[in-house]
Design brief:
Radius of gyration: 14 Å
Largest sheet: none
Order of helices and strands: HH
Number of helices: 2
Low-confidence stretches: none
Distance between the termini: 21 Å
Shape: elongated
Mean pLDDT: 98
Structural class: mainly alpha
Amino acid sequence: MELTTKEILKKMILDSQEMIRDYEVHSKKVNDSEVADIFKKFAEECGYQAAELQKILKEKF
């Protein structure tokens, strides 16, 4: 079964949100502050991606 563009966008939004949660959780569990900071940065970047995908989804569908 082939996914539509709308379905793919929704899936990628969910994937981005899951990555945000994962990075945030792991940033609190690691003992290395440099790694924790990188994870926090990655969570923020995933947030921007999710927001942009949400915007596209709203505009086009």
